[in-house]
Amino acid sequence: MEITPTIRAELEKYLKQQDLSMTEFGHIAGINRGIVSGIVTGNSPISVNQLDRITEAMGLPEGYFYDLYVENYIIERSPNMRRIERLLYRCAELDKLDAISRIVRQIMDNLLYSPKLFDIAEALLAQGRHAAALLLYENVAEAEKYQHSERLAICQYRIFTIQIGDDQNKNLRAAAVFEAFVERLDEIDQLDALKDLANVYRSLRKWDKVDEMARKMRDKAEIQYTLKHQQKSRERNESTKKLSRPMFVYITYADLLCASVCEAQGDYQQALQYTYAYANLDWVKETDEDTRHWIGLFQHWAEGNIYVYKLLSGDISVLQDYVEYIAATSGSNEQEEISKLLNVIIAANRFELDVDDILQRFETEINSFSEQPPSDDMYTQQVIPDYIAWFGYELAYYDLHRGSYIDGFKHLMYSMISYHKLNNETYFINCMGLFLHFQDYAVSETKAAFLNLIEKVWMNNVKKNGAADHRG
Question: pTM for this structure?
Answer without folding.
Answer: 0.85
